[in-house]
Amino acid sequence: NMIMKNGFTWQGTEISLQGGSDFTAQGTAQYGLKKGNWAYYAALEGVTTNGYRYFGHSDVERGYGDIGYRAEGNEVHLSFTGAADGLGVAGTTPLELVQQNPWAVFTTPQTTNTSDEMLTLSDVSHITPTLTFNGNAYFRNYAQAHADGNVSDFYHCAAGAGFLCNGDYDPANPPVTTL
To answer: Which of 21, 64, 107, 117 has its CA 20 to 30 A from that of 168?
Structure first.
């Protein structure tokens, strides 16, 4: 069970920026405010990098926001959490190619893009001094897509289910598989 920050538990402003090699950059910001019975909180974060090889760009963005109301010991929060990323990589590269150019790639793209959003309504109600009700209702959406650029000369052939062939299949000399 995680209890997230909100405007009742954290007030102020904080911003952080960082940078590094391969065009790497990261930024974070958070803001919290309490005003009477209401509280507001928001946090954002982003990271991006080009990676050390061609087509290695990756990025991540995250955000969280909360609106809270507190009265007579009871508390209600409506919050949103969202994130998206794009992770770019390249498959393994033959040593001969890497020796010519350390940034070279053999197959591309190898990318995964993910997004996730969640809306949450939570409640803490003190019914009596010894009885408390906690409730949560939420909606979550998740999506992911992957592009794989690996290619080969292998293809399914008449040798049977699960066999891959490279060239012509000869039934007199079926492929040998080992486990």
So the answer is: 107
- Rounded Cα distance, 114 and 64, in Å: 17
Closest to 164 in 3D by CA, of 154, 174, 172: 154
From CA 56, how far away is CA 22, in angstroms rounded?
10
Contact 61, 87 (CB under 8 A): no
For the beta sheet containing 38-49, the strands, ordered from the edge strand earlier in sequence to the opposite edge, are 12-20, 24-35, 38-49, 58-71, 74-89, 110-128, 131-148
Residue type, 30: Q
Exposure class string for 56-68: b at 16+ Cβ within 10 A, else e = bbbbbebbbbbbb
Reported as a single tens digit per residue, the pLDDT across 69-115 is 999 889 999 999 999 999 887 777 888 888 888 888 877 778 899 99
Nearest-angstrom CA–CA distance, 82 and 15: 19
Rounded CA gap, 40 and 58, in Å? 31
pTM for the full predicted model: 0.75
* Distance in angstroms (rounded) separating the CA atoms of residues 52 and 24: 10
Angle at 13 between CA 12 and CA 15, to 5 degrees: 155
Closest CA to 41 of 66, 15, 20, 77: 66
What is the residue type of 136? N
